[in-house]
Recover the amino acids of this structure.
């Protein structure tokens, strides 16, 4: 009882401070994953708009960032409007993005001639406003730069998604340095869903929520994005529908 | 060469009288075209040249080298031979363009003296009598002439030779007075006191843009190229060019494009006049862009694309589908502001997130003709294949290249023990060696 009343007082104080600061009374928009177990771990129940989120790949993914890129594409696909994708290495294969629901008409690619210019384009895109999401593929992200990007995202309310990819796997330790991103994720590949026949089932990922502002880190085993960019949670016991299918085939 | 000698060399030679007036008119038309395409400061250099100040405008063409080769190629497409040179001074560019064998040349900043030293005195723009006398005196190159004491030369030929040499080496200013045609919409602002502060320049830029947009609106036009020409008190001209992907008449948008690059202006001792010219215009009708009836109107990314595009350090594009089964040909780049295509790629087969620009050779052990590999070695690491899907057979496109007549690629998706998924293919169908080398390649990475 005492706790709830304390919470009431704190939330009241928060409202008054916000009123005093004269911040734009924008409702804190959230993009939920629509997976209850993941959303409840994130403050507000999803990825916040007007913030920068950071995604890296695990092991081999540190270099190609394939799973991280597709995870981000799935997030961007669930927003509404144009997406700007800033990169230096143009090895992204657009049909794969279309397969997670990111239509090619929605994506504008900004290819920088040098790594340093990606940050500049990313900030410009975040400040532009009116974009659904801004994605950047970055090698280095110093604390100062990330804080600046976070402020740019706050000023326009656009969601910023950063894919970290390094030249060599040994450089991936750089991800240990703190940044001002609201959430930091590591997406690594897991063996795909077993099928009753030879072949490759739905891809599975291990999504590690390494850092989240006002929340606790957590690990999730998820099924890769579907045609609308939605992910799904896998229970440790295995997918229920897969089990029934297997019994049909084996019996 | 005399006409009689030419007729003796070539049988049935068709002779046409020279028409200098028509040549000059054609050169003028070319100059005005170059003004809209390449640079804000362009003028005729009769009888056979065009001079441009491309400082601050070459990035719109992808840099100096690309600008020159593009320029020469566009002339060649029309059956014209052209030589193009970028140099520090008008004199150096004039001399080099008329004496070199290559089609294009970029002289790096500060290397003018070295590059012009071996040019003949005829590249100095001096009278033919003076040239003959110089030859009699034994002058073969500009370098020799420049190293000769000035006083005896001036005594004999007057000040002209010294002035031309100085102009070539950049010791004397040689302003280019830009050509103007009556259709160009231009607004000016002259200052009683020279201005130099960034804020002041920015303020007057936005006033000029407002004036320009009013004039454009009266004519129903939008700009594709806007030039800000800065006249300094020491009689030199600087220019800033802003390009847009679509015709624009938006004051805020144009002001931002020009203000973004204010730091490129060097005010020196002060600016006495600012001019803003709409060099390339296209019709633009009024249309409603904001409406309270539509909740989330489509956002026009045009202004964002222009802001980054004018910095010259980005390639901005969208990707659109092409009807081709060959993965590297199934994607094409289109303009970021092009109309929506509406189409997407077929969704039948999964596609990798990362596609290598060049497939890499791998070593495999696989059963022929249609089994996936049991293991493969890529970049020195051996991976055992746990699961695989395929083959997806892709045929060569003989209508693109005849050598692809029989070519076949069999694509497999493979997954190793750690769950990493790759896209690999075998060149050839596994039976017939005409279809390919039967070597294996890795082409992409799945998520």
């Amino acid at each position: 009882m005492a706790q709830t009343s304390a919470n009431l007082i704190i939330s009241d104080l928060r409202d008054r401070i916000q009123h005093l600061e004269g911040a734009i009374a924008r409702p804190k928009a959230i993009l939920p994953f629509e997976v209850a177990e993941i959303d409840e771990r994130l403050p507000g129940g999803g990825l916040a708009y007007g913030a920068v989120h950071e995604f890296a790949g695990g092991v081999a993914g540190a270099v190609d960032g394939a799973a991280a890129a597709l995870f981000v594409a799935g997030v961007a696909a669930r927003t509404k409007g144009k997406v700007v994708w800033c990169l230096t290495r143009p090895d992204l294969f657009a049909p794969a993005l279309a397969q997670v629901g990111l239509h090619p008409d929605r994506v504008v690619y900004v290819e920088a001639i040098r790594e340093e210019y990606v940050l500049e384009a990313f900030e410009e895109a975040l400040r532009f406003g009116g974009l659904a999401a801004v994605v950047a593929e970055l090698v280095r992200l110093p604390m100062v730069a990330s804080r600046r990007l976070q402020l740019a995202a706050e000023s326009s309310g656009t969601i910023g998604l950063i894919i970290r990819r390094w030249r060599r796997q040994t450089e991936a330790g750089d991800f240990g340095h703190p940044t001002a991103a609201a959430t930091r994720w590591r997406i690594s590949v897991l063996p795909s869903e077993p099928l009753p026949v030879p072949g490759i089932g739905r891809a599975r990922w291990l999504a590690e929520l390494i850092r989240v502002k006002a929340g606790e880190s957590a690990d999730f085993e998820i099924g890769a994005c579907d045609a609308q960019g939605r992910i799904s949670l896998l229970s440790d016991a295995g997918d229920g529908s897969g089990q029934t299918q297997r019994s049909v085939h084996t019996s | 060469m005399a006409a009689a000698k030419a007729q003796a060399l070539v049988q049935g030679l068709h002779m046409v009288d020279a028409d200098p007036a028509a040549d000059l008119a054609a050169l003028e038309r070319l100059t005005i075209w170059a003004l809209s395409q390449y640079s804000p400061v362009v003028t005729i250099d009769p009888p056979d040249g065009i001079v441009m100040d491309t400082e601050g405008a070459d990035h719109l063409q992808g840099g100096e080298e690309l600008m020159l080769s593009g320029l020469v190629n566009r002339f060649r497409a029309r059956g014209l031979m052209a030589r193009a040179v970028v140099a520090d001074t008008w004199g150096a560019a004039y001399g080099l363009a008329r004496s070199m064998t290559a089609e294009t040349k970029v002289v790096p900043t500060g290397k003018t003296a070295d590059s012009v030293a071996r040019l003949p005195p005829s590249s100095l723009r001096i009278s033919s009598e003076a040239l003959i006398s110089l030859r009699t005196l034994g002058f073969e190159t500009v370098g020799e002439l420049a190293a000769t004491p000035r006083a005896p030369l001036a005594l004999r030929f007057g000040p002209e030779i010294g002035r031309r040499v100085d102009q070539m080496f950049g010791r004397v200013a040689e302003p280019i007075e830009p050509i103007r045609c009556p259709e160009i919409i231009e607004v000016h602002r002259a200052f009683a006191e020279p201005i130099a502060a960034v804020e002041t320049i920015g303020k007057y830029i936005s006033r000029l843009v407002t004036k320009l947009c009013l004039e454009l609106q009266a004519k129903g036009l939008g700009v594709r190229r806007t030039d800000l020409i800065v006249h300094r008190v020491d009689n030199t001209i600087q220019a800033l060019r802003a390009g847009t992907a679509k015709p624009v008449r938006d004051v805020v948008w144009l002001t931002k494009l020009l203000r973004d690059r204010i730091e490129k202006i060097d005010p020196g001792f002060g600016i006495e006049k600012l001019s803003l010219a709409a060099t390339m215009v296209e019709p633009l009708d009024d249309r409603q862009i904001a409406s309270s009836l539509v909740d989330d109107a489509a956002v026009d990314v045009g202004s964002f694309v222009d802001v980054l595009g004018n910095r010259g350090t980005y390639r901005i594009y969208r990707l659109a589908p092409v009807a081709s089964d060959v993965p590297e040909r199934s994607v094409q780049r289109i303009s970021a502001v092009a109309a929506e295509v509406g189409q997407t790629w077929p969704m039948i087969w999964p596609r990798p997130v990362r596609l290598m620009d060049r497939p890499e050779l791998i070593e495999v052990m696989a059963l022929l003709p249609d089994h996936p590999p049991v293991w493969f070695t890529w970049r020195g690491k051996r991976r055992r294949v746990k699961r695989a899907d395929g083959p997806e057979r892709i045929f060569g496109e003989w209508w693109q290249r005849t050598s692809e007549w029989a070519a076949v690629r069999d694509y497999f998706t493979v997954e190793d023990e750690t769950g990493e998924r790759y896209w690999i293919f075998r060149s050839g169908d596994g039976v017939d060696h005409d279809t390919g080398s039967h070597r294996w390649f890795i082409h992409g990475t799945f998520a």
